[in-house]
Structure formats: structure tokens, C-alpha cells
Design brief:
Elements: E1 14-15, E2 18-19, H1 20-40, H2 51-59, H3 66-84, H4 91-120, H5 124-129, H6 136-140, H7 144-151, H8 163-181, H9 187-207, H10 215-218, H11 224-237, H12 240-248, H13 250-269, H14 278-301, H15 306-311, H16 314-321, H17 323-342, H18 351-383
Antiparallel strand pairs: 1-2
Helix pairs in contact: 1-2, 1-3, 1-16, 1-17, 3-8, 3-11, 3-14, 4-8, 4-17, 4-18, 9-11, 9-14, 11-14, 13-14, 17-18
């Protein structure tokens, strides 16, 4: 699977420089996250415990794996970029500049806004629900996942999802160096080996009663496999012989998706499907990564398939475009709307609380759209002034 020296392959359906399926995949990932955090993970009680609410919770029971889809996609996209520009004299400078403008401005703006609010407004809901369970500077340094692992807790509900940003930023620091110094011929074997070691170490950690189980979920050394599976997929797409084989045998990727998907559904049905379950947290995460890699490759190599058509859906593509803002904002907005309305955390005991969650979701989408239109797109334009 030695990468082809050619530029990134022509796959998927393009609109300018964008691959439509990838936008849809981002949209699908954030949809899963929203479903899990706002509906599956949020307690239904009283009159709201109905067959419909139980069905909704079951539907999004594996929605937490949307973050894993983002991991695989990050490895796929960034690994591909680094392969394509391996000989660039601006290899490091351009990579890190582009990552900075994509990740930092909105994230830091949110942290600063909340930090100022906590010290100036004096509002009870701000001080309680947006409290810094860990050192506030750890969020700016992308080290909060270490504090979460040590405490065995995600901390403040409003910022609990930022652990994945820390994992990705730490991955960004290491990936370019790794891909620059490992010879191209040996890189696929190195990636496969490191992913396999990750699986073994994480499984051993989860089976041990000595260490905090959350560490296996939020620390980069235990999440390399999903990120590296994405990198492996990028290599496969740049190997002309393998790419042609994937195009010629759509049933192969379909079978991979079906087998890994059935394993995950079976784990969910047998109550092993939660991320805090040792089985899921051990081998299950690798199955999740393999499932999503197969799905990405299927969508990109089979543009006439129903999978590719699904990810080209305009609604998913729009959601994918604003997905970063949605990911950062959805929990703070949900916490804020429920506290303002009910002086409580997001719960679903009645229709009024459900309506509050829907209001928060609408506000999140609106704010994320405005953020993309007037802030993030400008930052990206600046990012792309840095060229390889």
C-alpha cells in the first residue's frame, strides 16, 4: 500500500474543491452527536417515558460514536494532505497555520466569552453549570483530557465534549512529524502496527482494575487506532491498484460495513454499547473505527451507490459545513436554555422541557450558521493564504 506520488485521487462528487460526500459525512457525524447528547443521554421521566421516547433513545444509543467518525475522518483528510505535500518546503508551517485558523479562533472565543461571563455576570447558572472543574488554562492548552482521565469525570457539562478537541490537537502535533520521518515504504506497516498496539494496550487498560477507565476513552495513546485507520484509508486511496480494486468490488466494502455494523448493533443490544463499558471501550472502539472507515471508502469509491447519495443530501452537507460550530456550542446552549427556563440541567420530564431542548437546538444551529458565515469562513480564507 505504498502511496502513489500523484496528487489526491479523483473520488466522490466534487463542487469546486469540495467533495460533497465528505461534507455529508461531517453532517452525519454531528447529527449522531446531537442525538446522543440531547436525546439519548438526557433522562426521560414521568409522562415522557413512552414507546416513542424509548425508541428515540435506542436510535441514538450509539450516537456517541459520531466523535469516532470525526476521528477517522480527521486521519483520512489530514493524512492525505500530508502525503500529497510530503516534499513541500512549507510542510510544517502551512499545516500548523491552517490547523490554527480552523480550530483556535472559535474555540478560544467561546472559552474567553464564558470565562468573562463567569467573573462579571455573577449569575448562578453561569457559576454552577459553566464552572471550571479543572484548571481553566488546561482548556486553552488542550490538556483537559488529562485532567478528565485523572478525575474519572468529564467535569462541567457545558465543556465535557472538548476532550475530543484535545485528542485531535495532540494528534496534529505528532502526525506531521511521524509522516515526515517514517519512510514512505514503511509507513503503512508502521501505521498498522501502531494501531494494533493501541488496541492491545487499551484493552489491557480496560480489563485492569488499577487504572481509571475514562483514561482509555479520552487520552490520545488509547485513541490512535481510529485516527490511524483514517490515515490508512488515505494511503489506500492514493494507491492506484488498490483504489481500482475498491471501485471494481463494491460488495467488499459493503460486507465490511455490514459485519462491523452488526457487531456494534449486537453490542448495543446486549448492553455493551456504552462508551464506559469495558468491552466497547476495549475492542469495540476499533470496530467502530473500522466500520466508519469502510463507510467513508464506500461513499467515495462508489459515487452511484445509495451510500454516496445519502451523504450528498443537501441537509447533511449544510450540517457538515457548520459542524464545528455546532459541536462547540450545542452543550453550552442546551445547558444555558434549560437553566434559564427551569433552573435545572437538561431533562425531559414533560413536553415543555422537550420544547426547551428543541429551542436550544434551534439556537445552536442559528449561532453556528452565523459563526460560519461571518467568522469561521473568514478564518479559513486566511488559513488558505498559507500554501504548501
Amino acid at each position: 500500500m505504498t502511496p502513489s506520488p500523484s496528487s489526491s485521487p479523483s473520488v466522490g462528487s466534487r463542487s469546486g474543491d469540495r467533495i460533497l460526500e465528505l461534507d455529508g459525512i461531517r453532517g452525519f457525524a454531528i447529527l449522531l452527536v446531537l442525538g446522543f447528547h440531547l436525546w439519548s443521554e438526557t433522562a426521560f421521566s414521568g409522562s415522557m417515558v413512552t414507546p416513542l421516547s424509548n425508541a428515540i433513545r435506542s436510535l441514538f444509543g450509539l450516537g456517541w460514536t459520531g466523535v469516532d467518525l470525526f476521528f477517522v475522518l480527521s486521519g483520512f483528510l489530514l493524512g492525505g494532505i500530508l502525503i500529497d505535500h510530503a516534499d513541500s518546503p512549507n510542510y510544517y508551517r502551512t499545516f500548523y497555520a491552517r490547523r490554527f485558523y480552523r480550530i483556535i479562533p472559535l474555540y478560544f472565543a467561546l472559552l474567553i466569552a464564558v470565562g468573562v461571563s463567569r467573573h462579571t455576570l455573577g449569575s448562578k447558572w453561569v457559576s454552577i453549570e459553566f464552572s471550571a472543574s479543572f484548571p481553566w488554562l488546561s482548556f486553552f492548552a488542550f490538556l483537559q483530557n488529562f485532567f478528565m482521565a485523572a478525575a474519572g469525570s468529564f467535569g462541567s457539562a457545558a465543556f465535557s465534549s472538548t476532550w475530543s478537541l484535545a485528542v485531535e490537537e495532540q494528534f496534529y502535533l505528532l502526525l506531521p512529524v511521524t509522516m515526515r520521518f517514517v519512510p514512505a515504504r514503511k509507513l503503512p506497516f508502521f501505521v498498522v502496527g501502531l494501531a494494533a498496539v493501541t488496541l492491545v494496550v487499551r484493552s489491557a487498560w480496560c480489563l485492569s482494575h488499577t487504572f481509571a477507565p475514562l483514561g482509555a476513552f479520552v487520552l490520545l495513546p488509547f485513541r490512535w487506532d481510529e485516527l490511524l485507520l483514517g490515515v490508512l484509508g488515505a494511503m489506500a486511496m492514493r494507491n492506484e491498484a488498490l483504489l481500482e480494486r475498491l471501485r471494481a468490488q463494491p460488495a467488499l466494502l459493503g460486507a465490511f460495513c455490514a459485519i462491523s455494523g452488526l457487531i456494534l448493533v449486537g453490542m448495543q443490544a446486549s448492553e455493551h454499547g456504552r462508551p464506559d463499558n469495558p468491552v466497547m471501550n476495549g475492542i469495540g472502539l476499533s470496530v467502530v473505527g473500522f466500520f466508519y472507515l469502510s463507510l467513508i471508502l464506500w461513499a467515495l469509491t462508489q459515487p452511484t451507490s445509495w451510500v454516496s447519495g445519502f451523504f450528498r443530501n443537501a441537509g447533511l452537507r449544510w450540517l457538515g459545513k457548520i459542524s464545528y460550530g455546532v459541536y462547540l456550542l450545542h452543550l453550552p446552549v442546551a445547558v444555558a436554555t434549560h437553566w434559564i427556563a427551569w433552573h435545572d440541567r437538561p431533562l425531559h420530564p414533560d413536553l415543555a422541557h422537550v420544547a426547551t431542548t428543541l429551542l436550544g437546538l434551534g439556537l445552536t444551529l442559528a449561532l453556528a450558521t452565523l459563526s460560519w458565515r461571518f467568522f469561521e469562513s473568514k478564518c479559513l480564507a486566511t488559513a488558505h493564504k498559507h500554501r504548501y
